[in-house]
Amino acid sequence: MIPELPLFPEQASTMAGPVDQLYFFLIALSAFFSLLVAGLIIAFSIRYRRRRVRLERPEDFGMLQLEIGWTVLPFVLSMVIFYWGAMLFIDLRRPPADSLEVFAVGKRWMWKMQHLEGRREINELHVPIGQPVKVTLTSEDVIHSFFVPAFRVKQDAVPGRYTDLWFEATKPGRYHLFCAEFCGSQHARMIGQVIAMEPADFQAWLSGTERGAAPVSMAEAGKRLFTDLGCVTCHQTDDSGRGPSLVNVAGSAVELSDGSSVVADSAYLRESILRPQQRVTAGYQPIMPTYQGLVGEDQVLELIAYIESLRDRGSTPLGEVTQRKTEAATEGTAG
Amino acid sequence: MTPDPSSRTAVNYLNVDYGVRSWLLTKDHKRIGFLYLVSITVMFAIGGLAALAIRLDLLTPAGDLMGDDTYNKMFTMHGVAMVFFFLVPSIPAVLGNFLIPLMIGARDLAFPRLNLASWYIFILGGGITLYAVLTGGVDTGWTFYTPYSTEGSNTNVTSAALGVFVSGFSSILTGLNFLVTIHRMRAPGLRWLRLPLFVWAQYATSIIFILGTPVIAITVLLVAVERSLDIGIFDPALGGDPILFQHLFWFYSHPAVYIMILPAMGVVSEIIPCFTRNKIFGYKFIAVSSLAIALLGFLVWGHHMFVSGQSVNASLIFSFLSFAVAIPSAVKVFNWTATLYKGSIGFEAPMLYALGFIGLFTIGGLTGLFLASLGLDVHVHDTYFVVAHFHYIMVGGAVMGYLGGLHFWWPKISGKLYPEWLARVSAVIIFLGFNLTFFPQFVLGYLGMPRRYHVYPPEFQVLNVFSTAGASILGFGYLLPIVYFAWSMRYGKVASANPWNAAGLEWATPSPPPPDNFAETPVVEDDPYGYTRIDPGEELQVA
Ligand SMILES: [Cu+2]
Ligand SMILES: [Cu+2]
Question: Which of B307, B316, B370 minimises the CB distance to A86?
Fold first, then answer.
């Protein structure tokens, strides 16, 4: 059997090509400078090897010009590389607006994935090709890192906060998913797969479950939690409850009791559930109990999905779950 | 020349006194340098054995040699021993201690007692860390990332952190001692711009010791505090911020890279003029670039955190500054190369190491540009690409420099010559073994193999086998100098005061030097590296 000897990873995302271009440019540049230095060393070593009679070197052979030259040239070159790398990075850090959203929670030693439509997976992530996918990451315990070499993307999953990455797969297949941040005993076994599928296959996969029944969407699951955990006793559709109404809160500016204001993004919503005393909404008493330890990160994500679905004050009664982005996503994949 | 200074009757620092007591209570910087040499060689052996175990385990994708936890403890032990107890002290504590007073024409360091105390603190720190290793080990990696180190790991993190904390004081005190010595104790006429570049490099390194080490010391102490007292500093479950740890850790640990490489650059700047019989090209640029590296090096720590969730703007600034700090290093490489021009080049072992250093450091530096490039770092961060890169800098650079320096000054340190041909052969073995070990790791890293993995997908195996093969060659190469240096202490040919015909005050005193270095305080009248004045026909003394 001939052993495999790959020298180069597969390109399976839209960013893989651009990242590799910079890689090849840098390889060429490195080869040039390494060979230049090595070539000069070897040439000088041969030409000027120790002999009886020695050549006298002139005291100043273009000293200052040389020094300026080999300071300025590397600087200019490195600025070109800086700019190139920075542009790629900005692209990698900005998920397109029409991205499909999925969620991944790291936990020693596995990845728990959630799709808005409700499918959950462990150590596997199904995604459609030809559609940007944004993965929101967090961790139940220590820092992990979500790394898909074939897509050239990586992002740490940090406990206590949300981070994200995005990619657009270009060809169907199964790709390695590695945990790249050391997380203890079985760090090296925290390996999974990203499974890229044709959009139609993905849709079929998304609407099925292992048991055949239609999956419960994240927002729907969040709604159930909202009742089961008693949130609903304080948070009503109108401001009649002991807590503020959560309709239209997601994404809006919230006035805080210390006079400042904050945009209610998912990080803020998460903190409001797990550490409510941290930032208290103006006009309310800090009476909300902490849910730290009572709900897992996956459930927090469901609660947030539910809160984010609470739009259209008045027209939609509280609890009417609206689908978020999924329609757009479905349309996108059809095209 | 002086009357044969190494005749058996001459009193020198080695024969002035005998017995364990005379060594353990010595205040002579040369003896203290020797004590460090022995202690860090032990640490190098420990770290090296761990590396060997790691490489053997990686021969097969399933990691058949050891269990998950053992493997994790092995790479932690390798990193902790090599970084904190070998590389950081290597050139400063051994060669710097030995050479700085000799090079500046002083009788000792400014604070000889403090110098001995630094060694004891180092031994204490090393002892605590070894205790942590022997009583169960540590598995966090040398980086001690939180919250794993504070909440996740149930190994001896606290005592290992304490060991690192304690040994930090050794660095701080050594740095302080060097700075005061270089400022206050230079021989008459030895102006700043006449200082050997090795001394400039030690000066820059000492600044980092003093400014950086307190930060890492406090940081690992905070880890120990959070672990034992459950105070929320880094653990988000206790209200802390895990990313704060990374900021604090890299604020020291990036400059620590320069603690390891700057002194090696200083060594190379001494060796190259001697073996080309040329003045160093661009003296001022090399001296200033050491300082520039030391200071700029404090501003780039965030390049370790591009995928940690750090803001895009912060990442942009850290990337920019990381490119900037590469420039002074490039300037040095060009200056060394230019020094060869119209020289009279000899290829004794120190020079082979110095040339090897330039080659490997160049590759290490250039691959640093890959990592400083934001969009590319996202892919290669925390993979074997990074492992290969920093081994090119720290092993290909710092260790090659250290070995080059040891060979260059061995006649001065021991009064004996090492076997030259064997040394040349081992320099070549080390160079080849090193490249076979670490070059495949660049490829592995770009393929996507994460670091700290001891089981891996089968397609990575061939490259890992290459790497392990290289590591065995490299290990053998390192064994040779340890053996022949020890051998030469007893059986080596007696060295003259200046076997290389080198310039520099350290060569103007007998080998080994007398206890108080110079019979008369030397007076310096010339710039360093006055090699054009040396008769080219004069033979070198080599064994
Ligand atoms: Cu991990
Ligand atoms: Cu760094």
Answer: B316
